[in-house]
Design a protein that fits this description.
This protein has 388 residues and is an all-beta fold. It has one helix and 29 strands. The strands form seven sheets. An eight-stranded antiparallel β-sheet has the order 15-19-12-9-14-7-6-29, with no helix packed on it. Bound molecules: fe (ii) ion. Fe (ii) ion binds next to loops.
Length: 388
């Protein structure tokens, strides 16, 4: 969880009256909403609305998602080239599934239009990696400006809207997580603070800034994703009507270039790159870094068999020392059950290198991933033979 923060006005104690200015609309009170996790047992935030958040005018069926697995892919390495993926849809409905299992869905999104309706994921936390594009994430918690290389972490049940300065520049990697997207517990000391030596800390996390609340009434559709089922809730008042909130549940940003890589005398294993985790998977940032210093160090990873892990890499920026043939915007899946490793020639080619400028996002899942049918048309079927 990100650290506790407080924005706007809140009363002195939880669950007591937060009184409005005399003559303000309503009953002279702001309306408390508790946003809690694991029932009422884990992290929570408390927000104060101008009007109750429960005022719904209409509820409409908004369709179903299709999530189909590719039927004819054997167990093999997969290379999906998404750099030129056709732009379509908005930042929510335009997501194209790449890989999935019961714990997560990994998608790419290259939207053509701005988000028209507010959006809320009822079941999953979301991680949106901004490969390119700038804009702001709006929610009742305030505005969160974002730009390239930002991870945006959005807790489940956050009504939000992504507003791009130029939607034609937007290029996103999206992970929807069944569990809670948080930090590796080993980074946090028993007092709840990032440990010295963790590869980032509280100063690198950016939370939303509360803006002037909107008192408008009207019709405000919220598109709710609930698994495969989509529902449109038409609210009677604007959802950004919060005068203050505090707590530990809110959307936040972390920029991959703020990751502080840990390097060693010889090759360090992938967990040193870990950034986030949720039930069933971890997210790692392979950031630009100094390479290993032993005079005989092999500076690309050793071949390895993934036992109980499927490994997805998304190639973001720079040159990839251990790979040939991947492009920026490529996704590779190196699944459980078979080994993978550096491409031929890369061990020798990297012998005199002291630094790598690569930036990649890795998602390692502990249950096997399925390749989505939508990814197949962008798959390079010769990739499994690229080690010859
Ligand atoms: Fe690997």
């Amino acid at each position: 969880m990100p650290p506790y923060v407080q924005r706007g006005t809140i009363p002195k104690k939880r669950h007591i009256a937060h009184k409005t200015e005399p003559g303000f609309l309503g009953e002279g009170l702001y309306y408390e909403e508790v946003i809690s996790s694991e029932g009422f047992s884990r992290a929570y935030s408390i927000a104060y609305h101008m009007r109750p958040p429960t005022r719904v005018l209409r509820i409409e069926d908004a369709g179903r998602s299709q999530l189909e697995a590719a039927s004819d892919i054997p167990l093999r390495h997969v290379h999906v080239k998404t750099k030129e993926m056709a732009r379509a849809g908005d930042p929510m409905r335009g997501r194209v599934p790449m890989f999935f299992n019961a714990d997560c869905l990994i998608a790419r999104c290259r939207p053509t239009i701005q988000q028209a309706e507010f959006y809320r994921n009822a079941q999953q936390d979301e991680m949106i990696f901004v490969h390119s594009g700038t804009g702001r994430l709006e929610s009742m918690y305030g505005e969160l400006p974002f730009g390239p290389m930002d991870y945006l972490i959005v807790p489940k049940c956050t009504t939000y809207r992504l507003v791009f300065d130029d939607v034609a520049q937007a290029d996103l990697l999206v992970v929807e997580a069944r569990g809670t997207l948080g930090f590796p517990p080993r980074y946090i000391n028993p007092d709840g603070q990032f440990r010295l030596g963790a590869p980032f800390c509280e100063r690198d996390l950016r939370g939303p800034n509360l803006v002037e609340p909107c008192a408008e009434e009207g019709e405000y559709p919220v598109l709710i994703k609930d698994g495969k089922r989509w529902t449109r809730y038409v609210l009677a008042s604007h959802p950004w009507d919060v005068v203050g909130w505090d707590g530990m549940i809110y959307p936040f940003a972390f920029n991959a270039d703020d990751f502080e890589p840990i390097t060693g005398k010889v090759h360090q294993p992938p967990p040193i790159h870990q950034t986030f985790q949720a039930d069933g998977f971890v997210v790692c940032t392979f950031a630009p870094r100094m390479l290993d210093t032993h005079p005989d160090a092999i500076k690309v990873p050793y071949a390895h068999s993934n036992i109980e892990s499927d490994e997805v890499l998304y190639y973001v920026r720079g040159q990839f020392g251990s790979r040939r043939g991947v492009e920026l915007g490529s996704l590779t899946l190196h699944p459980h059950g078979i080994p993978h490793g550096p491409h031929p020639g890369t061990i020798v080619a990297s012998r005199n290198a002291t630094y790598t400028d690569e930036l990649a996002v890795m998602i390692d899942t502990f249950a096997p991933l399925q390749v989505a049918a939508d990814a197949v048309s962008m798959d390079d079927p010769n990739y499994p033979f690229s080690w010859l």
